[in-house]
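--- STAGE predict ---
source: upstream dedup step, 1 unique chain passed
mode: sequence only
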Amino acid sequence: MTRILVTNDDGIDSPGLHHLARALHAAGHTVVVAAPAQDASGTSASVTYPGPGQQLTVDRRDLPDLPDVAAYALAAPPALITLVAVRGGLGRPPDVVVSGVNRGANTGHAILHSGTVGAALTAAANGCPAIAVSLQLDDEATQPAYWEAATRYLPALLPALRQSATPIVLNLNAPNLPPDQLRGLREARLAAFGAVQTTVRTGDGYVELSLADTEASREPGTDSALLADGYATVSAVTPILEVPDVSLRAVLDTVS
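--- STAGE serialize ---
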């Protein structure tokens, strides 16, 4: 039986987190939920902690329809929560980490900044395979959220994590559609940009940030483009990447 840590960056009260935990529990997995006490979106793989000799606050929570699932809210970003869990701080370390379901897609190189993806990358960097799961949900207040679209393909993807010789991370995105309207699951390369771009405007004594959709992110065959076409997408990503074809020898020779 697989022991799965479920976490997210939207916080312990997120319905996407609750749906994910229910789906994995219903599939027969042993589920432990540990998530930020407050929204921690955009924290990437931050492991900021109180400091030596200080303690993280851990509150036991009850999740809707999951009386048998241990759930905890921590005053910490999701990557730190994941690090605590894989080091045995929440009982037996998980076999797999599943992070999400995030409100909003995590596509392109912008996944660098995602707390949802950051938690998954932290897991893999510490020897535990992981999946980051996101739903392309623009406004939860004005449109229905089809969380089940985001979890539809998890049963097919979870075994792939356990078959790899080294811990891997899968970044899974789904359009916000009823599951029977999904066009399928496609492997995708990361777009050069995310689906949403940040613009910066400066003024006297301030910097203003805003988010805007951009068509430039939708190169054919990328996660952003396929998602816009109604496909769920999956991409294998790595937590630490060396660049083997760049040589620094010439620089090093000047300082030897």
